[in-house]
Amino acid sequence: MKRFLAIFPYLDDIQEAYHSLKEQGFKIERFFSPVPVPEIEDDLIPKPSPIRWIVLFGSLTGISLALLLTIGTSVAWPLVVGGKPIISVPPFVVITFELMVLIGSIANLLGLFGLSRLPKRVNEPAYDPRFSDDRFGLLVQVPPDRELVAREILETSHAEEIHEVA
Fold it and tell me: Fewest beta carbons within 10 Å, which of 21, 65, 81, 111?
């Protein structure tokens, strides 16, 4: 699967190319712009992040470990005071809450680093510094059998430059 990076001088041109490529079924990988363009950005919003499930799993793990720790300690070294039960929930609530927050936070941090692929050791090869100044860019995934169609759409949409990116 090849990737083409097209550089456009005007917003209207890149919008035309974007809609034409979407109609033909090409996958738009990235959109580079010096200004916000809600028409394109809203369409490229990825699906919801799985980080919420990672944090939920970490929090439930923290609750489980806290209850295991407190109940296990009470059973291993019972201390009967005034006939009260050995396993009583109210004293365990604080420790359970603290471990839930601690392990949930650690899971959140590790999930964030894992899902965002941090730290990045290699810069993205498709980025051009002109995208922060006055140019727009479109990174498109192109199947090998449809290269000519994609190149033709980008050229008819007045792309300044079209590069093949590894």
Answer: 81
